[in-house]
Structures
1.
Amino acid sequence: MPARHPSGGPRVSTDPERAAAALIAGSLVALPTETVYGLAAVASDRTAVARVFEVKRRPADHPLIVHVDSLASARQWVLAFPEPAAALARRYWPGPLTLVLPRAPWVPDEVTGGQPTVALRVPDHPLTARVLELVGEGLAGPCGVVAPSANAFGRVSPTSAADVMASLGGRLGPADLILDGGDCRVGLESTIVDASGGELRVLRPGAVLVDSATGQPGDGEVAVLPRVPGSHSAHYAPAAEVVIASGEELLAASASPIPEDLGTGLLAPVGIETPVGWIRLASPTDDVEFAAVLYRGLRAADDAGLHRIVVVPPTTGGLLPAILDRLRRAAR
Ligand code: AMP
Ligand code: MG
């Protein structure tokens, strides 16, 4: 028997067949992916999709990413799949890349937020790949599930089944399910590339590094990254205050310690020392490990009741744009 939440909340299982059956029956399933856990519903099931919005308290005009099992399935959701986008799909799918394309006329407005485009991705996780395959076999018509991050809107995305339970366990019912596929490998949301116009445009940086001008793999999206910090709406935010600091700023702060500096957590690359009285949340060795532990660290700070999280981002690496993007939003 799968484990059950004590309050009668969702079941937890490692069985993709159970997960697919729950989705086909119209329930919600938290699915593991290589990026973060998604709260999935069959994309053509309007009632189930409406529940995703309700459970997450997500604004209705916020479009959802449709997760499919293959490029062939993705083609069924679009009017056109321009060659530059298809080349990216062939190269990076399955993987942490979402493509925004002109939608097929039948795609529900609930999925696209009423936009003329649809966002598509083939996630890279063996359990979820199997779920998508089974859902495709079990349902008539184009297969796909919407799967926004399985957390309350605006909060930190979950990177483990336990995170999902902590975030949404109280809002899901006994027919819903959390598919436990372990810790997410990447730990940050997918790169989103808008391929609906003439040229490619990066809407959100992630682990797939695409040069928006050429569509070729690049060394980051630094050119599109610098934004007015205040223009970032609060997102990916823990309850604790997030402060972004450089290694030098941290040194200066620890040189003149604040006496009653209780409740501060530090997430910083290995080699940066923890000021006296602060709680070390993680010591990643590079940008890839930093991305993988970032959300876990933010959650751990909230769990420990800390009121401030100082984050020293790494200074190099291809994941830097994605890490800085999420940190600036978390810091509001
Ligand atoms: P997530 O919050 O990770 O589920 O990602 C959803 C994000 O994908 C949205 O906030 C948009 O930025 C982007 N997105 C999804 N669908 C579309 C679409 N049809 N057109 C443009 N952007 C989209
Ligand atoms: Mg999200």
Note: DSSP finds ten helices and 15 strands in the chain.
2.
Amino acid sequence: MRAFRGSFLHCLANPADAGVEAASYVADGILLTEDGHVVSLTQASKASVPADCPVQDLTGKLLVPGFVDTHVHYPQVDVIASYGTQLLEWLETYTFPREQHFEDRATAEQTAAFFLDELMRNGTTTALVFGTVHKTSVDAFFTEAQQRRLRMICGKVLMDRNAPDALCDTPETAYTDSKELIKQWHNKERLGYAVTPRFAPTSSNEQLQKAGLLLKEYPDVHLHTHLSENMAECDWVASLFPDQLDYLSVYEHFGLVRKRSVFAHSIHLSHSEWNRLHKADAAVAHCPTSNLFIGSGLFDLRAAQKAGVKVGLGTDIGGGDSFSLLRTINEAYKIQQLQGVSLNPLQSFYMATLGGATALDLDSHIGNFEPGKECDFVALDPNATELLSRRTAVAEDWQSTLFALMMLGDDRCIYDTFIMGESSKLTL
Ligand code: GUN
Ligand code: ZN
């Protein structure tokens, strides 16, 4: 058993439904853990800690559940901060050339190791991750994630057209490679598999059909793809699939829209598409840093909430320009401001924690400090910089401290990241 003392904040429900009651704040609390799982979170004055149980004193830090990144590409670490293009040109110019290196096992291992350490350094403990088309890219990723005891979901990219030959598989190899990876890695310890067609333009009908077949055979794997990110992309999809009503119906047609399906971006959607996503119990990943960096558009959070669609946050590295969920929340706030909405800090905190876990259908394992959950958490330092220290000193309540951390914070605020109750300070 281990215990941790500090200030705790977590969500027990969606603030969009439950308001401020969705959150629980314990100014001076003790988190008791056993074998990496939560036993209890109580006020320090009422806690009973076994005599032989060590208590780590994190007083002055804000302890929150580990952040959940619901859309990110590990092979794009070296594409981050590439100048001057929007989506389709960005893919051709920077991304496709870089992804070709992941046929090489050593490149994949080294990049996955860097990527996972960088996530932890930023307080992210779970992510839904794109590999490349190469089977070895996913094998290397899972190997590194397993070593770090992280809860991670990843998948081999499926793409058999409109991409360089070196990055194309076939419907058949897409199916057999994915199947082998599922058998080897899905539900192994904390790891899960996602069937990952890149996006509609890079898969043939035959390949999308194979993706649907995999979901039928393995109903508890995830489906991870992109949807309605950029106007030129949307026009291209309309011309490639003239028989389909809209972008989402391409995926629906092949049985890809259901619970555990996660659609990155989802910017240019109709009311009908939002309602169908809700009906199917699918989720979207909002990626504000990426949407601004490659100029894709402004995500309509109100429409998502009105339709009752689950929304997580994604960094979308390398379209996005930061690993930090705090930076991501900062940009999400500004995207809503531009649409006349002031995004409530508790709502964005929810999206980065329990909401992200719910979007991935992992909320029975992670997302808050409820007894029995896996004990991944982050110690945030409200005094990490002089400016933050000055601003949080005049914060009148925990909501103001939280908002200041989210607007001014980044990896410098991550004092430590705990995986299954163990500090990662020593390993990073
Ligand atoms: N659409 C298809 N592929 C990609 C990708 O790698 N990144 C982003 N942001 N959008 C995509
Ligand atoms: Zn992406």
Note: The chain has a mean pLDDT of 98.
